Every structure is written in C-alpha cells, then in structure tokens.
Amino acid sequence: SQQGEEDPQALSIQEGENATMNCSYKTSINNLQWYRQNSGRGLVHLILIRSNEREKHSGRLRVTLDTSKKSSSLLITASRAADTASYFCATPTGTASKLTFGTGTRLQVTL
Amino acid sequence: DVKVTQSSRYLVKRTGEKVFLECVQDMDHENMFWYRQDPGLGLRLIYFSYDVKMKEKGDIPEGYSVSREKKERFSLILESASTNQTSMYLCASSLLRTGLGQETQYFGPGTRLLVL
Q1: Taking burial as the number of CB atoms within 10 A of a residue's CB, which of A47, A54, B53, B116 is the most buried?
Q2: How far is residue B8's CA from residue A68's CA, in Å, rounded to a whole number?
Q3: Would you list the DSSP string of B28-72?
Q4: Are A13 and B76 in contact (CB under 8 A)?
Q5: Which residue in the set B42, B94, B102 is minimally distant from A101, CB to CB?
Q6: Which residues of chain A have a CB within 8 Å of the CB of B103?
Q7: Cis ω before A8 (30° cut-off from 0)
Q8: CA of A63 vs chain B CAs: smallest distance (Å)
Q9: What is the tens place of the pLDDT at every residue in B49-76?
C-alpha cells in the first residue's frame, strides 16, 4: 500500500531555478525521509525530518513537514544538471524498521 | 561508507527457471530488505529480515522466497520465474536502532531482471 504520494510526477526546470516537490501521506508518522535515485541506480538517502521539526536544511536542500496537513515538501535551490533524478519520500510503516516509499517525482534539470 | 552490493546488474532468465538474486552489505546491519520497482508503482517491499534466519513478508511476497543464513547476505529467490516478475530489484540494509522507521536505508545498485 502506498503511504506517500509525490506531486508532481514529473518536473522540468532550467539550471539555476528552484525545484519544489511535495509528498502527502495518510497516517500519523514520527518522521519522514527523502531519497534520490539516479536513472537505473539504487536510492540514496538525502534527509530525515522528525515530526517535531517543521523545517530542516542540508546544503541546497530544504525540507518542510506539516503534520496537520500530512504533507512534506522538498525544495532544491539553484538546481544543477546533476540534480536530474527521481526523488522519493518515505514514511515508517507499522512496526520494526520498514519504510513505505511514494511513487516519486522525476526531476529534469536542463542547461 | 556503507556498501551494499548485488550480484548482477542485468539478468535474463526464461519462464519457469529458478532465479537467485544475492545481496551483500558490509556494515554489520541487522535489517535487510528486498524491493521491486516498476514504473508508476514506486518501490514495493517483497521481504524484510531483521536478523539471521528471520524474515517477514512485505506487501508482495507471492512468488518469492528469501534466505538469510549470514548477517551480511540476503538472497531473494524466484522459485519459478514468470514474465510478470520482470522488474528492477533493489536490496537495502539499515541498522536496527529504535525500530521506529528512523533508520536510514542504504541501497544497492539494483538488478534489472528480464524474464522471457
């Protein structure tokens, strides 16, 4: 079952612009993670935000979490061609250490 | 750096064959996962293991089995491959900390399996 749904499904921007992608989820969570996947490769962890945090920064990444709306956003500032990838949000599932991943946003950054 | 390796990047098999996908991690992680990834469906969990010889079904375990005889190795087995198992298979591992889903998962490069 899908817990997170990303929006938009695809996004195309020019280098230097900001990219914003959103994630909505269904049940209460204690944290939310964002991952990145380059074409045909495995996923790489980007950032984790806890439920008591509203905003978190890491380099050019800014993540927000609104638990009242059950949504999160990932902002990539001053995008580069190398940011071209798919981005997934992931939320804890049930017990243990499992995560449920959304369907992802495909970001294309052109020169 | 955590390293998760998968035995093959690309694999072509015939319907009915038994297929083994191997995953090895080098960071002494307790948790290991197998996902499949299909366009439009995202990642779906097939099986999860939190310790040697322990396994738990994920969302789509039908047609698959797993084996974890050693902590660093987690194998996915397709008992009798079918064309609908053509997919990208991703292995991941994580440390067991709180069990609250706060652990970062580290992924292998993936195996693209084609079943003819």
Answers
A1: A47
A2: 43
A3: --SEEEEEEEETTTEEEEEEEEEETTEEEE-S--TTEEEEEEETT
A4: no
A5: B42
A6: 97
A7: yes
A8: 16
A9: 999 989 999 999 999 999 999 999 999 9
